[in-house]
Amino acid sequence: MAQNDRAARMELVVMNSGGQVVQTQAIDPAGGRLRWTGETEAGAALPNGTYRFETRAYIEGEEVPKTEPVPVFARIHEARMEGDQLRLVMAGGVEIAADQVEALRMP
Question: What pTM value is reported for the model?
């Protein structure tokens, strides 16, 4: 997560593929790594699928109008061609087009 020196409070917002917010959790404005467990606040597992992550910052109790997308890292289990498009299969069976990937790194 990126550091935000101006924010007094920050939240991670998790949305499902339909754009519905399925979870929010407080995060440290100082930044750093965060491991998402894929569970609700009550500890129930969220369904397999594709999720989008954003951060919300609050300065003096007011939400900053701009949210920031959060970079996500996941293990690639398989790469295969479908027609002329390279598809990547991630942990849990989630598939994405290779052109959605912005970076690769060693685990």
Answer: 0.63
